[in-house]
Specification:
Shape of chain A: globular
Strand content of chain B: 5-15%
Structural class of chain B: alpha/beta
Radius of gyration of chain B: 20 Å
Order of helices and strands of chain A: HEHEHHHEHEHHHHEHEHHEHHEHH
Number of helices of chain A: 17
Oligomer: heterodimer
Helix content of chain B: 40-55%
Low-confidence stretches of chain B: none
Strand content of chain A: 5-15%
Low-confidence stretches of chain A: 1-12, 430-437
Bound molecules: iron/sulfur cluster
Strand order of the largest sheet of chain B: 3-2-4-5
């Protein structure tokens, strides 16, 4: 009887590239729109990623522009440094967030406007959600580009999980102000039903996001929730509210479900499951990733991926309460607007529920929102919870802070010690003892 | 550019000496001093830039400015929690918590922080975790004065501060007590404003190094104790005889949060600058006029913060951009130049430098950028730099 030759399983990376390619497709379409708008002057608005209200811009067909994504792309393409230096020439300090410097340097080099790839915005919407640098950044853009700035001041979370009515009213009043500004800019009357529809697309994308992250609980995890999550972060943060983004998530989830059901992972043989805290070093993204890949370490959850929203914990935009849910998302359901202690709780849940072996903190100089106090975080996780924690430093934008050899040494030493402990433990029982150690400590309820 | 220095009259010298001694103390020591005559008094730390001191005072507590620990305390444990690229005030303030200086045993109820920057926000959370039992409050002060909703929001936020504090203390914070505290702090602010006028109108009557010590002393004394001292000081200063001296009149800008070492101010002055306006400890003298005591006093404080407070680098106010604020400061004080002094690693100040520099350049106003940190021991290099700057202005 003829037997079918077994098909060689495609390398895990081929699976990974499916979602990457899908993401690239939708993101490229948006970037093409940006380039077109730079020439035509179609209405566009600057906005920040964290806890944004992009749905409102969409309601008026105002093209959203995210300077943070611009900075990120400059870094990942290794083009950031000359722009950073250009900004430093006009007075920015070496200690200022380099995202800002790269973007401003780019603006000063005619990257913004009819000769550039980014449209000069018709409006600058400063969704001040957590990061105080946002305010400075957009004040500078407003002054340099001579464009009106609309401020949305979102009070920081300061009473746990409840949104106070006062805060909610304050944010909603400002969102209504933004709506008026958009009406004036476009001459289009606000249509709440259109907003409901847009918010419905958001909710569908969020459900997909959430499901995809949930799938990383499987062993092996179907994708790396740090390095691969940027494939999802673009669509969820920049394209949220579009049908394309929602469809993208449907396709991504279907793909990851397939992988999980077949036992396929981000890496061939997953050895270590880690949680990542802090933004990645975009100028050395691949190098940095390889240092973990060498140990077959996979990230199963990351805080950085939640700067826009913590949807994995259940929040969804709500078509029945479109404006309220937009305000709630800005106030409560994103990493940036929450305290360090809440971030510790978030990470702790990740370690526990996603069954991680360790925590890796990438501390970046540029972003004090993330980094200020990460030493305390390390203290808490190692000393109080017994979670092995590695802390390394560089930057998310400025290539001058990345020291490859030193980075490699630290990472290798860390995983060597994890491996050693695991080997020692496996003499007593099969399976990663370390994981049990972590869970035990967590159960002790520190 | 002809300015002058005076030797303060004897009475003034005594007050200044006292203030200088006071600002050398750690918060717990300053509190202990105030407790000598009020054994039951407890304190609440106020991290810069601003929190409504009146509400704290009306709660029967002493509001104490937390400006870091300068060179008074060795940072041992906080350095492992806040990286080297974080400003010194954040690290030394955490050290104050870790070392027990701001503990209940030292007489502190806790501390209040506000939304000035990413570092202060994380510090608040980290301090809270490391000082169990200490009451830590975080105020989100409004960043959008342009929306009509800001008024209601700010009133609520100040109200929340009052009710949370009252709940923590287990006692009511009475409206009349808040009014009395407003009257008292109005007086404190008016006296400091008079001292500032004195410095500007009678150049050289008081050195800024001394004035700064006096203002800092106001943040670590009960206002009842500060008022008579400031009144004495003012009287004595009016009697002092000026001494002629060539100098450049400057505005000092950028030190709104971390306090520069007083020796740094000394260095600026001895390098030939007469500081005629500054933003030192600005949160403690933030209102441009009196806060009214009629009606709801908490609302009055909130309204004053929103509508009639001085600009700072940590607040967005579209109707009153900071560059305009700085230019007004220069104009009103008749300054010749600006010294932009920021705490090392202080992002709000470092970012503002870019726009300030642009605005000053456009108007041909000379400026010099300097950076400081708490543990600075030698000021020689800075003094030389400033001297070169002043000489270029005096002799060009
Ligand atoms: S400080 Fe961090 S969150 Fe803020 S703009 Fe810079 S990178 Fe983004
Ligand atoms: S010195 Fe600057 S960075 Fe440091 S806490 Fe104060 S405002 Fe923030």
């Amino acid at each position: 009887m003829p037997t079918a030759a077994p098909q060689p399983a495609p390398a895990a990376n081929d699976y990974g590239s499916v979602v990457h390619d899908l993401s690239r497709e939708v993101m490229t379409e948006w970037m093409t729109q940006l380039q077109d708008a730079a020439r035509t002057g179609a209405p566009s608005a600057y906005m920040m990623v964290s806890g944004n209200c992009v749905e409102i811009l969409r309601c008026f067909d105002i093209l959203p522009v995210f300077p943070e994504i611009n900075a990120l792309q400059l870094a990942i393409r290794k083009k950031a440094l000359p722009y950073i230096l250009k900004a430093e020439e006009i007075g920015y300090a070496s200690d200022n967030c380099a995202y800002v410097k790269a973007d401003i340097g780019y603006t000063l080099s005619e990257g913004v406007g009819e000769h550039g790839s980014t449209p000069k915005p018709s409006l600058i919407v400063c969704n001040f959600v957590g990061c105080n640098v946002y305010i400075k950044w957009f004040e500078h853009c407003a002054e340099m580009l001579d464009v009106p700035l609309v401020m949305i001041d979102v009070p920081f979370v300061r009473q746990g999980e409840a949104v106070s009515t006062g805060d909610l009213h304050y944010v909603m009043a400002q969102l209504r102000g933004l709506i008026t500004a958009c009406e004036e800019l476009t001459g289009v009357k606000f249509d709440i039903d259109r907003l409901r529809e847009i918010v419905g697309h958001s909710a569908r994308a969020e459900a997909g996001w959430s499901r995809a992250k949930e799938l990383c609980k499987s062993r092996p995890a179907p994708f790396d929730c740090y390095f691969d999550s940027i494939n999802m972060m673009g669509p969820i943060n920049a394209l949220r509210g579009t049908k394309q983004a929602a469809d993208f998530f449907d396709a991504a989830v279907a793909h990851y479900e397939m992988m999980a059901s077949r036992g396929l992972g981000a890496t061939d043989e997953e050895q270590f499951r880690v949680v990542f805290e802090g933004p990645p070093p975009y100028p050395y993204y691949r190098n940095f990733r390889n240092l973990f890949a060498a140990w077959k370490a996979v990230c199963v959850q990351s805080t950085y991926s939640t700067v826009g929203g913590t949807w994995e914990f259940g929040f969804r935009h709500d078509p029945d309460r479109p404006l309220e849910s937009i305000a709630e998302q800005m106030l409560l359901h994103n990493l940036c607007n929450r305290t360090m202690q809440e971030r510790y709780r978030q990470i702790r849940r990740y370690v526990e529920e996603w069954e991680a072996d360790a925590l890796v903190i990438h501390s970046v100089k540029s972003c004090r929102l993330f980094s200020a106090g990460q030493g305390d975080m390390r203290e808490y996780f190692t000393k109080e919870l017994g979670v092995p924690t590695l802390m390394v430093e560089s930057d998310l934008e400025d290539p001058r802070y990345y020291a490859e050899a030193q980075m490699k040494n630290r990472i290798d030493a860390f995983f060597e010690s994890l491996q050693y402990k695991r080997l020692r433990g496996s003499a007593a029982e099969a399976g990663p003892v370390l994981k049990e150690g972590v869970s035990d400590a967590l159960r002790r309820g520190h | 550019m002809n300015a002058s220095w005076s030797r303060p009259a004897a009475g003034a010298e005594e007050v200044i000496r006292e203030c200088r001694t006071l600002v050398e103390l750690l918060p717990s020591q300053a509190l202990a001093r105030a407790r000598q005559s009020r054994p039951d008094l407890r304190g609440l730390g106020v991290f810069p830039v601003y929190a409504p001191q009146e509400i704290i005072h009306a709660a029967g507590l002493m509001p104490i400015g937390l400006f870091g620990a300068g060179a008074k305390l060795e940072t041992t444990r906080a350095d492992s929690r806040f990286q080297s690229f974080i400003c010194s005030i954040a690290r030394s303030t955490l050290e104050l918590f870790l070392s027990g200086d701001l503990s209940r045993e030292s007489g502190f109820e806790g501390a209040v922080f506000s939304s000035i920057c990413d570092v202060a926000r994380n510090l608040c959370s980290v301090a809270g975790r490391n000082a169990p039992g200490v009451y830590v409050e975080y105020l989100h002060l409004p960043q959008n004065a342009a929306t009509p909703a800001a008024r209601e929001y700010t009133r609520r936020e100040f109200g929340r501060f009052r009710s949370n504090l009252a709940q923590h203390l287990g006692r009511v914070i009475d409206e009349d007590d808040i009014r009395r505290s407003i009257v008292l702090y109005n007086r404190v602010r008016a006296l400091i404003a008079d001292l500032y006028d004195q410095r500007r109108e009678r150049p050289g009557s008081i050195r800024t190094a001394d004035l700064f010590a006096v203002v800092l002393a106001a943040t670590c004394m009960m206002p009842e104790d500060f008022v008579p001292k400031a009144e004495d000081l003012l009287c004595s200063l009016r009697e002092g005889a000026p001494v002629e001296r060539d100098s450049v009149n400057v505005v000092l800008e950028g030190a709104f949060c971390e306090a520069p070492p007083i020796d740094l101010i000394d260095a600026i002055e001895s390098a030939g600058c007469q500081i005629v306006e500054d933003d030192l400890a600005i949160g403690w003298r933030i209102f441009r006029g009196e806060v009214p005591v009629e009606g709801d006093p908490v609302a009055a404080l909130a309204d004053a913060y929103l509508a009639s407070s001085a600009y700072t680098s940590v607040r967005h106010d579209s109707a009153r951009p900071r560059t305009r604020g700085l230019l007004d400061r220069v104009e009103a004080s008749g300054a010749d130049a600006v010294i932009l002094a920021s705490a090392k690693f202080c992002e709000p100040a470092l970012f503002d430098y870019v726009l300030f520099r642009r605005a000053l350049d456009e108007r041909g106003i000379p400026h010099l950028k300097i950076e400081f940190e708490e543990k600075m021991w030698t000021f020689e290099r800075l003094r030389n730099e400033i001297e070169t700057f002043t000489e270029s202005l005096l002799f060009d």
